[in-house]
Amino acid sequence: DFGCSTGPNTFHVVQVIIDTVKSKHLKENNETSLVPLEFQVFFNDQPNNDFNTLFRFLPPSSESEYFPVGVPGSFYGRVLPRNSIHIGHTSYTTHWVSKVPESVCDKKSPAWNKNYILCNDLIEEVTKAYKVQFIKDMELYLEARAEELVSGGLMIILGQCLPDGVPMYETWQSHVADTIGDCLMDMARSGIISEEKIELF
Protein backbone atom coordinates (compact mmCIF):
# COMPACT_ATOMS: atom_id res chain seq x y z
CA ASP A 1 0.00 0.00 0.00
CA PHE A 2 1.63 3.22 -1.18
CA GLY A 3 0.67 6.04 1.21
CA CYS A 4 -0.60 3.76 3.98
CA SER A 5 -0.78 6.38 6.76
CA THR A 6 -1.43 4.80 10.17
CA GLY A 7 -4.47 2.62 9.44
CA PRO A 8 -7.13 1.30 9.75
CA ASN A 9 -8.11 1.81 6.08
CA THR A 10 -4.92 0.19 4.85
CA PHE A 11 -5.61 -3.00 6.84
CA HIS A 12 -9.09 -3.28 5.35
CA VAL A 13 -7.80 -2.86 1.79
CA VAL A 14 -4.97 -5.35 2.33
CA GLN A 15 -7.42 -7.94 3.66
CA VAL A 16 -9.80 -7.45 0.72
CA ILE A 17 -6.92 -7.92 -1.74
CA ILE A 18 -5.66 -11.04 0.07
CA ASP A 19 -9.16 -12.55 0.26
CA THR A 20 -9.68 -11.88 -3.46
CA VAL A 21 -6.35 -13.45 -4.44
CA LYS A 22 -7.02 -16.51 -2.25
CA SER A 23 -10.50 -16.96 -3.72
CA LYS A 24 -9.21 -16.69 -7.29
CA HIS A 25 -6.37 -19.11 -6.50
CA LEU A 26 -8.80 -21.72 -5.12
CA LYS A 27 -11.16 -21.41 -8.10
CA GLU A 28 -8.37 -21.73 -10.63
CA ASN A 29 -7.01 -24.81 -8.88
CA ASN A 30 -10.39 -26.53 -8.39
CA GLU A 31 -10.14 -26.10 -4.63
CA THR A 32 -7.84 -29.11 -4.34
CA SER A 33 -5.60 -29.52 -1.33
CA LEU A 34 -3.23 -26.64 -1.85
CA VAL A 35 -0.37 -25.37 0.20
CA PRO A 36 -1.69 -22.15 1.81
CA LEU A 37 -0.53 -18.99 0.09
CA GLU A 38 1.82 -16.71 2.00
CA PHE A 39 1.77 -12.96 1.55
CA GLN A 40 4.24 -10.20 2.28
CA VAL A 41 2.70 -6.73 2.53
CA PHE A 42 4.74 -3.56 2.15
CA PHE A 43 3.30 -0.52 3.93
CA ASN A 44 4.82 2.61 2.38
CA ASP A 45 4.57 6.23 3.45
CA GLN A 46 6.75 9.27 4.10
CA PRO A 47 9.58 8.77 6.62
CA ASN A 48 7.77 11.02 9.12
CA ASN A 49 4.69 8.74 9.05
CA ASP A 50 3.94 7.18 12.44
CA PHE A 51 4.86 3.60 11.57
CA ASN A 52 4.82 2.69 15.28
CA THR A 53 1.10 3.44 15.44
CA LEU A 54 0.54 1.60 12.17
CA PHE A 55 2.18 -1.58 13.44
CA ARG A 56 0.58 -1.29 16.87
CA PHE A 57 -2.84 -1.63 15.20
CA LEU A 58 -1.93 -4.56 12.96
CA PRO A 59 -4.17 -7.60 13.34
CA PRO A 60 -2.73 -10.01 15.96
CA SER A 61 -0.06 -12.26 14.44
CA SER A 62 -2.18 -15.33 15.21
CA GLU A 63 -4.92 -13.95 12.93
CA SER A 64 -2.75 -12.27 10.33
CA GLU A 65 -2.35 -13.83 6.91
CA TYR A 66 0.65 -11.79 5.90
CA PHE A 67 4.12 -10.67 6.87
CA PRO A 68 4.11 -6.86 7.23
CA VAL A 69 7.02 -4.61 6.28
CA GLY A 70 7.31 -0.83 6.75
CA VAL A 71 8.85 1.04 3.82
CA PRO A 72 9.57 4.72 4.51
CA GLY A 73 10.15 6.97 1.52
CA SER A 74 8.42 9.13 -1.08
CA PHE A 75 6.41 7.09 -3.56
CA TYR A 76 7.43 9.56 -6.25
CA GLY A 77 10.57 7.44 -6.56
CA ARG A 78 11.30 3.74 -6.26
CA VAL A 79 10.92 2.37 -2.74
CA LEU A 80 11.11 -1.35 -3.58
CA PRO A 81 13.39 -3.60 -5.68
CA ARG A 82 12.65 -4.19 -9.34
CA ASN A 83 10.05 -6.87 -10.10
CA SER A 84 9.25 -7.36 -6.42
CA ILE A 85 5.48 -6.84 -6.11
CA HIS A 86 2.46 -8.44 -7.73
CA ILE A 87 -0.23 -6.01 -6.60
CA GLY A 88 0.21 -2.35 -5.73
CA HIS A 89 -2.46 -0.14 -4.21
CA THR A 90 -2.92 3.50 -3.32
CA SER A 91 -6.05 5.33 -2.16
CA TYR A 92 -6.46 9.11 -2.19
CA THR A 93 -2.75 9.88 -1.99
CA THR A 94 -1.58 11.08 -5.40
CA HIS A 95 -3.29 14.46 -4.99
CA TRP A 96 -0.50 15.23 -2.50
CA VAL A 97 2.05 16.64 -4.91
CA SER A 98 5.73 16.15 -4.09
CA LYS A 99 6.20 19.88 -3.56
CA VAL A 100 4.37 23.17 -3.83
CA PRO A 101 5.16 24.65 -7.25
CA GLU A 102 7.79 27.38 -6.92
CA SER A 103 5.70 29.93 -8.83
CA VAL A 104 2.87 29.54 -6.30
CA CYS A 105 5.25 30.59 -3.50
CA ASP A 106 6.80 33.49 -5.43
CA LYS A 107 5.20 36.79 -4.40
CA LYS A 108 6.19 38.31 -7.76
CA SER A 109 4.62 35.50 -9.80
CA PRO A 110 1.14 35.69 -11.37
CA ALA A 111 0.62 32.25 -9.76
CA TRP A 112 1.14 33.65 -6.24
CA ASN A 113 -1.54 31.90 -4.16
CA LYS A 114 -1.73 34.33 -1.24
CA ASN A 115 -3.90 33.34 1.71
CA TYR A 116 -4.95 30.00 0.20
CA ILE A 117 -3.87 26.58 1.45
CA LEU A 118 -5.43 24.80 -1.52
CA CYS A 119 -5.04 25.16 -5.28
CA ASN A 120 -7.04 28.32 -5.92
CA ASP A 121 -8.59 27.70 -9.34
CA LEU A 122 -9.92 31.24 -9.40
CA ILE A 123 -6.41 32.14 -10.56
CA GLU A 124 -5.63 30.33 -13.84
CA GLU A 125 -1.86 30.49 -13.27
CA VAL A 126 -2.22 28.66 -9.93
CA THR A 127 -4.23 25.87 -11.54
CA LYS A 128 -1.69 25.56 -14.35
CA ALA A 129 1.26 25.43 -11.92
CA TYR A 130 -0.35 22.61 -9.92
CA LYS A 131 -1.33 20.72 -13.08
CA VAL A 132 2.27 20.87 -14.33
CA GLN A 133 3.54 19.63 -10.95
CA PHE A 134 0.94 16.84 -10.84
CA ILE A 135 1.88 15.63 -14.33
CA LYS A 136 5.59 15.55 -13.39
CA ASP A 137 4.82 13.69 -10.17
CA MET A 138 2.53 11.13 -11.82
CA GLU A 139 5.15 10.38 -14.46
CA LEU A 140 7.67 9.67 -11.68
CA TYR A 141 5.08 7.66 -9.75
CA LEU A 142 4.12 5.47 -12.69
CA GLU A 143 7.74 4.96 -13.78
CA ALA A 144 8.66 3.80 -10.26
CA ARG A 145 5.71 1.41 -10.02
CA ALA A 146 6.45 0.04 -13.51
CA GLU A 147 9.89 -1.00 -12.28
CA GLU A 148 8.67 -2.43 -8.97
CA LEU A 149 5.78 -4.48 -10.37
CA VAL A 150 6.38 -7.92 -11.84
CA SER A 151 5.40 -8.44 -15.46
CA GLY A 152 1.62 -8.79 -15.51
CA GLY A 153 1.31 -7.19 -12.06
CA LEU A 154 -1.65 -5.04 -11.07
CA MET A 155 -1.63 -1.43 -9.84
CA ILE A 156 -4.79 -0.06 -8.23
CA ILE A 157 -4.98 3.75 -8.00
CA LEU A 158 -7.99 5.43 -6.39
CA GLY A 159 -8.11 9.19 -6.33
CA GLN A 160 -10.19 12.33 -6.35
CA CYS A 161 -11.31 13.88 -9.60
CA LEU A 162 -13.46 16.82 -10.59
CA PRO A 163 -16.36 16.34 -12.99
CA ASP A 164 -15.87 18.26 -16.24
CA GLY A 165 -16.86 21.88 -15.85
CA VAL A 166 -17.02 21.86 -12.04
CA PRO A 167 -14.53 24.31 -10.55
CA MET A 168 -12.66 23.27 -7.42
CA TYR A 169 -14.13 26.15 -5.41
CA GLU A 170 -17.61 24.58 -5.77
CA THR A 171 -16.62 21.31 -4.08
CA TRP A 172 -17.01 20.41 -0.42
CA GLN A 173 -13.24 19.81 -0.17
CA SER A 174 -12.63 23.40 -1.17
CA HIS A 175 -15.11 24.68 1.42
CA VAL A 176 -13.40 22.64 4.15
CA ALA A 177 -9.95 23.84 3.07
CA ASP A 178 -11.16 27.46 2.93
CA THR A 179 -12.48 27.15 6.49
CA ILE A 180 -9.16 25.71 7.68
CA GLY A 181 -7.36 28.48 5.78
CA ASP A 182 -9.52 31.12 7.48
CA CYS A 183 -8.68 29.62 10.88
CA LEU A 184 -4.97 29.67 10.05
CA MET A 185 -5.20 33.33 8.96
CA ASP A 186 -6.95 34.16 12.26
CA MET A 187 -4.09 32.43 14.08
CA ALA A 188 -1.58 34.50 12.09
CA ARG A 189 -3.40 37.74 12.95
CA SER A 190 -3.29 36.68 16.62
CA GLY A 191 0.46 36.04 16.37
CA ILE A 192 0.18 32.30 17.05
CA ILE A 193 1.80 31.39 13.72
CA SER A 194 3.44 33.44 10.99
CA GLU A 195 1.61 34.35 7.80
CA GLU A 196 4.69 33.20 5.86
CA LYS A 197 4.17 29.63 7.11
CA ILE A 198 0.61 29.71 5.80
CA GLU A 199 1.72 31.06 2.44
CA LEU A 200 4.19 28.18 2.05
CA PHE A 201 1.78 25.51 3.35
From TrEMBL:
List, alphabetically, the InterPro entries matched: MeTrfase_7, SAM-dependent_MTases_sf
Report the leader peptide range. none
The molecular function terms in GO held by this entry are: methyltransferase activity
Query: What are the BP-aspect GO terms?
Result: methylation
Write the record's keywords in alphabetical order, separated by commas: Methyltransferase, Transferase
Q: What is the lineage of its organism?
A: Eukaryota, Viridiplantae, Streptophyta, Embryophyta, Tracheophyta
Name of the protein: Putative S-adenosylmethionine-dependent methyltransferase
Transferase among the record's keywords? yes
Organism field: Noccaea caerulescens (Alpine penny-cress)
